[in-house]
Amino acid sequence: MTNGKLYHGASLYPELWSRDVLMRDIAAMKEAGINVVRMGEFAWSVLEPEEGRIDIGFFVEVIGLLYENGIETVMCTPTPTPPIWMSHGHPERMHVNEQGTVMNHGARQHVCTNNAYFRERAALITERIAQAVGRLPGVVAWQLDNEFKAHVADCLCSSCKELWQRWLERRYGAIEALNEAWGTNVWSQTYRRFEEVPQPGPTPFLHNSSLRTMYRLFTMEQIAEFADEQAAIIRRYSAAPITHNSNIPFHLDNERLFRNLDFAAFDSYASQANAHAYLFNCDLWRNLKPGEAFWVMETSPSFAASLESYATPHPNGYVKAEAVAAYALGAGGFCYWLWRQQRSGSEQPHGSVVSAWGEPTIGYRSVLEAEAARRELEPVLLASRPARAEVAITYSDRAKAFLQTEPHRKLNYRGLMNDFYKRFLALGLYRDVVPEGGELTGYKLLFTPFLPYVSPEFLQRALRWVAEGGVWVAGPLTGGRTGEHTIPTDAGLSELEAWAGVKTVYTYPMEGTGSVGEAFGVTAPLSLWSAVFAPAGRETAVVGTIAAGLTPGLAFATERLHGRGKIVMLGSLPCGEAGDLLLQKLIGHYADEAGVALRSDVTPGTLVVPRTGDDGNDLWVIINMDGLGGTVTLPREGLDVMTGRKAAAGALAVAAYEYRVIRMEK
Amino acid sequence: MTNGKLYHGASLYPELWSRDVLMRDIAAMKEAGINVVRMGEFAWSVLEPEEGRIDIGFFVEVIGLLYENGIETVMCTPTPTPPIWMSHGHPERMHVNEQGTVMNHGARQHVCTNNAYFRERAALITERIAQAVGRLPGVVAWQLDNEFKAHVADCLCSSCKELWQRWLERRYGAIEALNEAWGTNVWSQTYRRFEEVPQPGPTPFLHNSSLRTMYRLFTMEQIAEFADEQAAIIRRYSAAPITHNSNIPFHLDNERLFRNLDFAAFDSYASQANAHAYLFNCDLWRNLKPGEAFWVMETSPSFAASLESYATPHPNGYVKAEAVAAYALGAGGFCYWLWRQQRSGSEQPHGSVVSAWGEPTIGYRSVLEAEAARRELEPVLLASRPARAEVAITYSDRAKAFLQTEPHRKLNYRGLMNDFYKRFLALGLYRDVVPEGGELTGYKLLFTPFLPYVSPEFLQRALRWVAEGGVWVAGPLTGGRTGEHTIPTDAGLSELEAWAGVKTVYTYPMEGTGSVGEAFGVTAPLSLWSAVFAPAGRETAVVGTIAAGLTPGLAFATERLHGRGKIVMLGSLPCGEAGDLLLQKLIGHYADEAGVALRSDVTPGTLVVPRTGDDGNDLWVIINMDGLGGTVTLPREGLDVMTGRKAAAGALAVAAYEYRVIRMEK
Amino acid sequence: MTNGKLYHGASLYPELWSRDVLMRDIAAMKEAGINVVRMGEFAWSVLEPEEGRIDIGFFVEVIGLLYENGIETVMCTPTPTPPIWMSHGHPERMHVNEQGTVMNHGARQHVCTNNAYFRERAALITERIAQAVGRLPGVVAWQLDNEFKAHVADCLCSSCKELWQRWLERRYGAIEALNEAWGTNVWSQTYRRFEEVPQPGPTPFLHNSSLRTMYRLFTMEQIAEFADEQAAIIRRYSAAPITHNSNIPFHLDNERLFRNLDFAAFDSYASQANAHAYLFNCDLWRNLKPGEAFWVMETSPSFAASLESYATPHPNGYVKAEAVAAYALGAGGFCYWLWRQQRSGSEQPHGSVVSAWGEPTIGYRSVLEAEAARRELEPVLLASRPARAEVAITYSDRAKAFLQTEPHRKLNYRGLMNDFYKRFLALGLYRDVVPEGGELTGYKLLFTPFLPYVSPEFLQRALRWVAEGGVWVAGPLTGGRTGEHTIPTDAGLSELEAWAGVKTVYTYPMEGTGSVGEAFGVTAPLSLWSAVFAPAGRETAVVGTIAAGLTPGLAFATERLHGRGKIVMLGSLPCGEAGDLLLQKLIGHYADEAGVALRSDVTPGTLVVPRTGDDGNDLWVIINMDGLGGTVTLPREGLDVMTGRKAAAGALAVAAYEYRVIRMEK
Predict the structure, then answer these.
(1) Which residues make up the binding site for substrate (chains A, B, C) (predicted)?
(2) Fewer CB within 10 A of the terminal residue: chain C, N end or C end?
């Protein structure tokens, strides 16, 4: 969502401050270059102080004041913080956590979003807000709720119980089908009726894996349906596009959630040490609504904090680099949480743009730098768009749910994926992180690590794409589970094996077994739950051999042609420094083989974003993210768009947090 | 339980798979040499899908099919996994943990085994199974339930509350007696009626020690009574011997539990690094039903795992060594959990013999090796029996319960005992681990470490045995508590002091005090809660003196003749490397003094099991357990039973995981 | 409370033992020099075994027996351990913890002290005890209850809910005022009625800071009111002074609690490694009831312990040093917990003076040493009193409550304060730790570290004192919060800034930012949440400058004259070894500037306590606390009071744990 400009925004809570403070904030925002605010997401009690007494007038007026001052509004629905009239005396409406503890009024997300009364009141307040502000010229977009399922995961309340059992009935039709799908005959858990299927509350040992995973999927589906409901109401009164401020750790299926929304947005509070996690988000959210600019809806101008702890403030210069990276990677907005420090509540220490007493904060200078960059870059970025990558990495919140059910030694999908992703940055490979259901056409190289369940739909799509020339690297931890979170009974990796031309000889955990693999000239320890292969037929080549451990001589990596493309199986995760090198060699090898051209020779810590100008020329946005400066090799002569000077082919230096835009003729 | 053969078995779940899979499994088991399966323990919902609709036909048929194929059956009662018709809508039947959380249906052991309705239904299903299969020729033995109290400890449900109060009434007669025994006047906890005595639920600080320990003893007694009930029912319909698959970490009094069962069995998933824990089990379970072969009812062919985590796979060769060690140490059966990998449930990653898709697993080769060894050893082992050891170490689940109540810095009875035991292996001393009530006659040397309460019965028995020539080493942490888990008021170690000829001058924790002890030429730091002695009379000799710390000059180890034997007091635990050496010297010293002959000069990591042939000759089974190989000194010329060659006196080498059987004439 | 002697005491539980044991204990106490016992605090069920059946006769008799033997009594009210007749069948009377768990009968503090029935029964038993023993000659003092709020913090029972809401109503008058004060409009938490304001039970994320802090203040006020009630009842029947055995970790406002009591007392079980924490207590408790001797009501003769764990026994000699330090620093009593080891309950392993079987323990020798010292020192200490310090450090349990609500990375007020305090010991500066409301007149130098809220009352008092010549060092972490636990909206440190002549340019956390400060010739890393200053006007001098980090050139320490004194702002905490040095330089600098004379040149680990004799001369009590011995420089010639010899000016050596008393003429 760009709307003909790049947005630079902040969260504003006019309902918490006097009119006088608001007027000063508006003036200060103008001065700082803030051109959009997000507001309303926690304001339910202001809008409806008593059940049914609704008045949206306050926000109508604020939106007007802002608009008069050149500041547009992302309006929110206030559903994450139901007022006291909803919760007081109604424990049955509250969220119930996995230990069975009923939440009290306080904090946020305390009411169950599946409670019928909540849904009714949420629909009403949403409708009234949409009616009142939906066509105001200042309202440029909508955000639903706030960070769905950030603080809560599965709810075990009785409303959820009933919905869960109905959801199961729709999914399985007959209880016998559920029993069969889940293998409930293990431990005599067999159910006779859907009303008997429990929620995953406390038990002496572990619940059935299918029950746990399905409950996660149920939760993710329900919250997405709530988003659908809200969006449908808003659309009756407003043409402004709708989004949600999501993130990877939340208990959501982001692909499903954004399916019915208009543009994608995320919140990120990664510290500089985790800059790769921030870039991972940009590369993923760009692909949740392809072709539509995503937003960084929240990030700190300096540091995140709550009463419990505070993070490290960003170094000076880093926020500018973050903003430039986001815009270059396809963001239409870059927004701070929050404009004015909270004076009360639970997050008072959190970094802001101005303090609770109205002065610039430690982050203020960074905001000015980001704004200067935005102004400078706006024309060139609006006249270009991020290149489509040639390399795709599949992201799946369903895979995340599977790994939560089956965490082994606290394996964490997010951490595994971020680590895997880091290597693409190190190799200077431009990449898309693509949701499981995303289009593959156009990519040359596909990675699907940590994807326990490869759905028939995905498999068919991937195979078609391989047949047309793609190179698919599947694994590690890919393909060993069914869609019901059980073990395949036909083959270790089920149908995938035949296509990949392998037989899974063994599956077992490699830690502590002295397992070592050799591939691409590198010898490295192997780790994690692994699948060990034998080639099935002459067409399969072993590219990674187990050199030591329990199964020497067998393969941990293979490849096989399929149509005009190739399927590469990676059955284990090389680890340690040598493992890192092995994986980089593997990625580099297949990037070469697949003919990946969108890459650059760049020092680590500096990012190159290739974009395509409306004039057809190539643009490289180069940003130093680590504060150490770096160099990048320009493949051919170009023009430094900011200075108007020529940029010679060869090494180009960038200073700490510096950005450069180089146009190179096609 | 040997029944004229050595059993090699696996757990089978025919109720989870098709008839076709079953037939393939039977064929594969035959091929692998599996001659017994254990089954039925989780099959309640198959046998009784609706309350009262019971049909055992399925297992009758499977037992028959197996038997036709030479495979016998250990049949189980299915009580660890009550079906949904028992738990649904009945929270009052569920287990309640120490935090007061009521369990949901799911996992296993979720229903309270003291609930009257559970007992009634458990009795009925047990009777019906016993009726149906009790006299089938394939049924070679019974297992009650599965791993009693593995996932749950004390239950705080209202059924247990009532039983607890009745149990107390039987134990104490009058509430005044309980108050006096427990010293409830501390903190005004005095009760007026048994109905007032609480279960050990949440309190602001610690419960009375007696209440906590007695609740553990109550729990252990109740579950043993449940086992008694089940056994009695089965015996009405079957002559096959009855066992249970127990283990040390479970919340059980194993001695009491097995009193009314026919043979002993345990489950062990120790990794190779904890091989000593596995051997400890063999040495203990052999002595739970003396003269009757025990079974290793469950062990992994490769690695244990659940959805939460997985262990390290065993090295190739180790499973064979485990099997040989078990058979040599007196096992009649060595069985895997499980034959076919689960496709669903909570333990899918767990090591198995064949995979969910029917192929040999990483552990399969180990199973074949174990079977080859079994076949080779069967004749010689059936024609001999483990020697009775000359050294006994007392094991007490009551002591475990005491240490759970009073864990100091997380002291753990199991860990303390295993560490203590390790030194006997290192010294090549053949040993029995003997339950508290076990017969002492025949032993030369007795150790009773970590036994807070020395009962009058035990004391009298030990004293009689000492008087006849035994050497008894009491301590550390032995004797400082009464049977009610209070402190003696007559002397620090109560009556034991007089017999040992010591006065306990002080008791105090030695960590951090710089305490150092000297004994047997070694100086070592002292640790743990310690009793510090002065000799009481000239007949007591100090053998360990405190050289530094708060009480220099006093004794931590003493000895005194009693009849033809000797009582050695060990008041403190020497620690660190020097402490290890000191303890080895101490053990060695008293082994010499007691004239212990059943020992061998063997390198660490290799096990020597002395057995006595029916021909009266000595057999040594020698097994390398650490995969590094080793040597043992043969005291005299013998015959290598496997090769038929002479084995010269002196050093005999064994290769990694190799086993040898040497017959030496008496 | 000295009553013309120095008390040396122990806790006695005659209700737990036979008459015979009591008589032996009395004889042994006489022999050991114990001249006071504390008793009765857990004896409710002995005094009132059935509701309303009260008989205090037992204690009347014991008090008499003791008194006949020269032993006086501190009598306690038995309210920490309500009998079973109060708790059985009454969950609504029990304490409910922050997770909502209802306590069971057991341990202590299990009944909510705000429950109306509890209050009624507590008043009655207190009255009956006071009536019975209040005028006995042996009763020298009273202790209320025992360690209020040691095991429990905020209670969430329904009695507390109602009281909380009434308390809020009294505090705020109208719900609108509460909403405004707490800023409940954040997250739509706005309440419509006081009955809607929840207790701080479980929520998905953090509660409002004001709610959490106010609940803590409410809890602290309620328990103090309970103490007031008890004291008022006792005073109707007894003239003996009343105290409570408190400590810093308990959930109390000690200043408020002791306001209506007669003398101060604390319990301390600090190990030698934390000797500074013990001295901190002495320096604080001396100032809770200025001019009145405090008591060390409980300390271990050797080590603290419970069933869960035990501490390290004190080195020989250390208890004597503790006793001398306490008496020198103003203690009127030094008492052990406990005389005779418990035979039952939950604390059997705890160090005592005699064992459960009546023998001297490992700590007995220490008791004799302490008694010898007491006897030697009594005349000289009773004829003198501790000097009033020139340096004050403000202590605030309200500040502790604020930091509990907002712990950042587990910041701990106690730990921060103890660390800060340590430096005064190292510098040989004699100091008072003064409660927030304590009188400042007479001090030359004041430190107020870690005081988030500087109340107007405190500010005005401090300013008046500064105007008259005091030097006030404010910070770190001082002044950034309002009394409602919100952020000031006028300036970062609110009103304090104007007086200190600074503008808080930024507030932010310095960890990880490379922040370095320079002051007093030392360069050190800066840490914690920091306020960074610019001088506001020429009168403000920068004394500490930020040399590196995000805000180089700004100040972290400033000073400004105010009247005849000076306000020093310290915005950050220097850390590491260099930070320690910097702080020592800073303290030393301002001690010089303020003309602090009560200091000594003493090696670390040795304590100098300046006292003033009734004859006007100076007395120095010198005690080695670290067991390493040390030296102190006598500023002028004196007399060694113990030996009667001259003590020359200059270096005086003290041996390990030795104490000396030097009289120097004024």
Answers:
(1) 108, 146
(2) C
